[in-house]
Specification:
This protein is mainly beta. The protein has no helices and 19 strands.
Length: 202
């Protein structure tokens, strides 16, 4: 009897990805009959998986996908999108009035910070900082910023920084110097935290 060897056809999976990330084993991979194949989908920093398509149909946004028992050719494509985040502004101090509108940001896109809308009697606004006490990263008013966080739907809070205004000088005098004088001619005090001692007429 003549024996004719039988050879099973190799099945293939073709993998591709858009910008903003990668997929393992890109290109065409040949598999044995009914073998499995797992793909790992990895977004770049600041990006997330926006869509995964298998054989032309969306399968959601997984970061891993397995073809099981492959008996025919398949395709898989991963797509990515930049993360969105929000910048919020805090007045950061007693007696602060006003408000500053928050900003919607997209990773890898630059915008100017919202102009400061806060004020604080006796103080001058000096800029923003990522920490309440000013020990973080500082930003100037309306500075162009980009990529303040890599987290998708993250929130960045910028805290207003304040410098107390220079001391105020108070001068004391009598209306009729010929008939009296003051014990203290003048004094300086901080406009907010200072307390005037005053003067008396003698």
């Amino acid at each position: 009897a003549l024996l004719v060897p039988f050879r099973q056809n190799a099945q293939s999976v073709t993998a591709s990805s858009g910008s903003g990330g990668s997929i393992s084993s890109p290109g065409k991979t040949y598999l044995r009959w009914k073998n499995d194949k797992t793909y790992t989908i990895t977004p770049n920093t600041g990006y997330h998986v926006s869509k995964v398509t298998v054989d032309g149909k969306s399968v959601g946004t997984p970061t891993s996908y397995t073809f099981k028992g492959v008996t025919s050719n398949h395709t898989i494509k991963a797509e990515f999108a930049p993360n969105a985040y929000t910048i919020q502004f805090a007045g950061n101090g007693e007696n602060v009035i006003g408000s500053t509108a928050s900003m919607s940001m997209t990773y890898n896109e630059a915008k100017d910070l919202t102009a400061n809308g806060f004020s604080r009697p006796g103080y001058t606004f000096t800029g923003w900082d990522t920490e309440v006490d000013g020990t973080g990263t500082d930003y100037a008013n309306e500075q162009e910023v980009k990529n303040l966080t890599t987290a998708n739907n993250g929130v960045v809070i910028l805290y207003a920084q304040w410098q107390e205004n220079p001391d105020v000088t108070i001068n004391y005098k009598v209306s009729d110097p010929a008939h009296g004088s003051v014990t203290t001619g003048s004094e300086s005090l901080a406009p907010v935290t200072g307390e005037a001692k005053g003067s008396t007429v003698k």
